[in-house]
């Protein structure tokens, strides 16, 4: 039986992905880099700084900004995003997530957040979910963002477990790769053509039940 569950936030607990897209698009328009939804797929699950690096490379402007200007752009994007997410409430929690969190707590399963978002604590508080989480991995403490395993390694460590005893839940390809690299067992939310054919996948969060997690768990040899 697994002992912990490591949750991504964007696209798993709630949909802040649309706010991220709008904030990146606004910044892109300001610096002359058009951004569409297709390119935005590459930014999902990726840290703010790495996303900005990808955006600048996309616009062939990676050499145009100093380190200070780069950090200012990242800060500006986050300010746009924070303005947009002020309206989030418990009603924005995806279907099935609250029930899953309650079932995990009732069965003494540890719960940790493994999100690239530095706004994780704020968002959990806005949705009334912070009390369900035993730990929130701080993305500022990891050297490498997803698809590197660092954030999932830290999320497991923060609840006193090894990743081998945990399930990781993600909706992005980079996140699934990070879970696998960490040694945890992945469950994807979305489509197999986006996330991979060789892992358990649910079409939506309403299908993420405690029974489903137990059914997909493969005891480590």
TrEMBL record:
One of the Pfam families matching this protein, by short name: Hydrolase
EC class of the enzyme, as a word: isomerase
Note describing how the cofactor binds: Binds 2 magnesium ions per subunit.
Residues bound to substrate: 8-10, 24, 43-48, 51, 77, 115-119, 146
Cofactor(s) listed: Mg(2+)
Matches recorded under NCBIfam families: bPGM, HAD-SF-IA-v3, PGMB-YQAB-SF
Protein name in UniProt: Beta-phosphoglucomutase
Organism for this UniProt entry: Enterococcus lactis
Gene that this polypeptide is encoded by: pgmB
């Amino acid at each position: 039986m697994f002992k912990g569950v490591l949750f991504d936030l964007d696209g798993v607990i709630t949909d802040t992905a649309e706010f991220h897209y709008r904030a990146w698009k606004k910044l892109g328009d300001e610096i002359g880099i058009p951004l569409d939804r297709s390119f935005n797929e590459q930014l999902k699950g990726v840290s703010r700084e790495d996303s900005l690096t990808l955006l600048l490379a996309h616009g062939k402007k990676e050499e145009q900004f100093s380190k200070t200007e780069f950090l200012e752009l990242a800060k500006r994007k986050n300010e746009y995003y924070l303005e947009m997410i002020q309206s989030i409430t418990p009603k924005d929690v995806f279907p099935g997530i609250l029930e899953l969190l309650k079932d995990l707590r009732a069965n003494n399963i540890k719960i940790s957040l493994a999100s690239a978002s530095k706004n994780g604590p704020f968002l959990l508080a806005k949705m009334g979910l912070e009390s369900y989480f035993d730990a929130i991995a701080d993305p500022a403490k990891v050297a490498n963002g997803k698809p590197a395993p660092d954030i999932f390694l830290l999320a497991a460590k923060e609840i006193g477990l090894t990743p081998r005893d945990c399930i990781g839940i993600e909706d992005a390809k980079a996140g699934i790769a990070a879970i696998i690299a960490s040694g945890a067992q992945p469950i994807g939310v979305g489509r197999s053509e986006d996330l991979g054919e060789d892992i358990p996948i649910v079409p939506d969060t309403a299908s993420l039940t405690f029974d489903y997690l137990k059914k997909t768990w493969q005891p480590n040899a």
